[in-house]
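Protocol step 4 of 5: obtain the predicted structure for the target chain.
Materials: sequence only (see below). No template structures provided, no constraints applied. The aim of this step is simply to have a reference model before the mutagenesis design in step 5. Sequence pasted as it appears in the construct record:
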Amino acid sequence: MLKSFGISGRECEAELELLRTGLDFGKVDWFHGEENPNDFKVIYEGRTSVLMHISGKKIKGVEHLSAAMLLFSGCCFKLKAPQGELPLLDGSAALWEKELEKVGGIKNNNLPFCELPEKEFEIKMDERFVKFQNADENYLEIKYSIDRFGQKFGANVKINSAKDLEKILLARTYIFAEELPSAGLSENLRGCGVVLSEGGTSLLFENEPAFHKILDFLGDITLRKGVLPKGKFEIFNGGHELHHRVLEKITPA
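Step 4 output (C-alpha cells):
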C-alpha cells in the first residue's frame, strides 16, 4: 500500500493487486467491484486528470500510475483508492513502478502501439499547441518544450521499448514559484514535487520538468486504452488540459 498526500493536500492511500496476466496491453481496473466498471470518462479538473464513473465516483491524480502501467503490458491490476484520490508520493511515477512489480506485475520490454486513423493533426490553445504526424513503424517520438516565467526546458525522446521510459518515469512534478500564490496548494505538498524558481531549483537531471511533462502526456493519453500511438508529437507549453484534447482526438468516448 502506498500513502502520501494527494493533490488536494489531504492524506490518501492506494492499494494494487494483480488480477490476471496475458492481456495485449496493461490495464488498471480503476473501479473494481462497481457495476459496469469500465463505464467512466476522463476529465480535466483541478490541475490534474480525473476519472469519473457513471456511478458518480471519481479518482483524481491517475496519470502517473497510468504511465507506469506501460511497463507492465499484459497485466491487469485492481486498484483500491478509498479517498477517491491517488497519493502524489515524490511526484514521479518511479514508486508506482516499484509497487506494480512488488505485487507481482511482470515487466514487458515490448510496448503496445496502435496506428491512428489521421495522418496528422494540430491542436491549439492560445500560444500553446500540439502537432502530430503519424509513422508506420512502432515508435513514439515526443518533442516537448516549456517556455514560462523566463525559464526554458526541453526534451526530445524516441520511445521504442520500455527501456526508453526509465528516465521519463523518474521525473518529478513541479510548479513555477510565480504560480504558487494563486494555485491554492496545501503546505502538505511540499515534498511531493519541485518548485521552480529561477537560479534556485535543484533538479535530478537536466530538463527534468520537460521529461515530467512527457510523463504526464503518456499517462493522460493512455488512460482509456493503454496503448501508444505511432508517430511524432511536438508540444509547446502543454499541460493536462491540452493533453486531454489529444486524448479526445485519438480515443473519442
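Step 4 remarks: The radius of gyration is 17 Å. Residues 2-102 form a domain with the Ribosomal Protein S5; domain 2 fold (CATH 3.30.230.20).
Proceed to step 5.
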